[in-house]
Amino acid sequence: MADLSEQQFYVGTNTKVENAGVEVDGTARIDGEFHGELKATHLIIGENGFVSGTVSGETAEILGRVEGTVSLTGQLTIRATGLLKGKVNYGSLAVDAGARLIGDLATEETQTSGRSGGASRTSAPAGRTTSSERSDDDIYSSSKKTDDI
């Protein structure tokens, strides 16, 4: 965990921020609640943190909960205690065993190359194969099965 003195934006455990639009050139850490739009170079959602809305930036590490749209150019890391639910666009993905990831996934490569079929819908606990680990042929069948449910 980064030292709090390194945080450019911090929402504490007993703090709730609503209808906010925040842009941070650096690190933002959320240990309380944040509802709105958050853009940060690096984002950390603590174990008790909750973000609802739109998140964008380079990298993010999720130990708490995020619901909404996440768009990152770099690595998205979801720790064992983390839950991410929504539309997710990422450069690379790391998911710890026990983490939960529910939603529509796309990589930056898929978005910039215009390839179709690279985006997928998934709902799987970590430790199981997610669509980001499957071939393009498997992605289609996985998406179809999820959408039929």
Automatic annotation (TrEMBL):
Stretch list, region Disordered: 108-149
A Pfam family recorded for this sequence: Bactofilin
Biased composition (Low complexity): 110-128
InterPro entries in UniProt: BacA/B (IPR007607)
Family, similarity comment: Belongs to the bactofilin family.
Protein name per the record: Cytoskeletal protein CcmA (Bactofilin family)
Organism: Amorphus orientalis
